[in-house]
């Protein structure tokens, strides 16, 4: 049985993932601040949207205009049709003002995503970021709440990217066992080269159903696309 794949459109990377990310997967994009997690997630959605998919990018960190203009600077023009829809948490809050007091936020967010996916037939969703989710939504029992939220996302049937910030100086990829719940993990890392240089690298740590390349790859953003190359050992 062949699994249908969603391409990352990162040049050189999809081949090493045996064609891409299995459709329907929940994938974490992990890294410390400034490792281009947001840019990578947006770029995957933008490229797929440019190729006919319908993508929903939910930002909990910036507003719609902020992210769209930052991404335009990085070579991703806003798409004319509604194939890439950017939604900020402010908008969700405005549309659910009356429910805000009464309901649990996780519930509101889940219902909102579910409704948008059903109505607008999005096949790819990104949520930026888990850290913002933790700070915006009070969780009584983070492990249990996340387990349910991840389960909900997987049941949606969309391919979902979850940006996950690793605080500086931490060795742990995640805080509450999200790595165990995710189907895939892409790790971004700033790697010191010599005394003065820093290189951005990416590694597919985990991808269920895929026999993927395990090592680190150099990741560069050139004009309007991401490219990976094998790391030349120093
Ligand atoms: N062409 C480029 N190559 C490498 N880094 C870049 C490029 N353009 C912008 N950046 C850097 O990317 C970072 C922002 O990326 P972003 O996706 O917001 O990171 P994150 O979401 O991981 O915090 C900034 O620190 C910026 O300096
Ligand atoms: Mg970010």
Alpha-beta content class: alpha/beta
Rg over C-alpha atoms, rounded to the nearest angstrom: 17 Å
* Total E-strand runs: 11
CATH architecture assignment name? 3-Layer(aba) Sandwich
Count of distinct structural domains: 1
Helix coverage percent:
25-40%
Query: What small molecules does the structure contain?
Result: adenosine-5'-diphosphate, magnesium ion
User: What is the count of DSSP helices, taking H or I runs of 4+ residues?
Assistant: 8
Uncertain regions: pLDDT < 50 for 5+ in a row? none
Give the helices and strands, then pairings:
Elements: E1 5-6, H1 13-16, E2 21-22, E3 26-31, H2 37-50, E4 55-59, H3 64-73, E5 84-88, H4 89-95, H5 105-120, E6 124-128, H6 130-136, H7 142-155, E7 159-165, H8 178-181, E8 184-193, E9 197-207, E10 216-222, E11 225-230
Parallel strand pairs: 3-7, 3-8, 4-5, 4-6, 6-7
Antiparallel strand pairs: 1-2, 8-9, 9-10, 10-11
The structure holds adenosine-5'-diphosphate (ADP) and magnesium ion.
Adenosine-5'-diphosphate binds next to helix 2.
């Amino acid at each position: 049985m062949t699994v249908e794949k969603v391409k990352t459109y990162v040049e050189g990377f999809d081949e090493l993932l045996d064609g891409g990310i299995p459709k329907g997967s929940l994938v974490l994009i992990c890294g410390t601040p400034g490792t281009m997690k947001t840019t990578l997630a947006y770029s995957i959605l933008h490229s797929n949207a440019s190729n006919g998919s319908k993508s929903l990018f939910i930002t909990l960190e910036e507003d719609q205009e902020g992210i769209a203009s930052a991404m335009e600077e990085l070579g991703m023009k806003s798409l004319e049709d509604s194939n890439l829809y950017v939604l900020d948490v402010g908008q969700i809050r405005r549309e659910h003002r009356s429910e805000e007091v009464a309901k649990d936020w996780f519930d509101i967010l889940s219902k909102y995503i579910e409704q948008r996916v059903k109505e607008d037939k999005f096949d790819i969703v990104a949520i930026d970021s888990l850290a913002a989710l933790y700070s915006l939504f009070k969780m009584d029992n983070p492990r249990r709440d996340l387990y349910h939220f991840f389960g909900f996302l997987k049941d949606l049937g969309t391919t979902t990217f979850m940006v996950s910030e690793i605080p500086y100086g931490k060795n742990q990829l995640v805080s509450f066992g999200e790595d165990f719940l995710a189907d895939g993990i892409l790790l971004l890392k700033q790697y010191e080269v010599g005394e003065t240089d820093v290189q951005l690298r990416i590694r597919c740590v985990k991808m269920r159903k895929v026999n993927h390349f395990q090592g680190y790859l150099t990741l560069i953003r050139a004009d309007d696309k991401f490219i990976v190359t094998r790391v030349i050992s120093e």
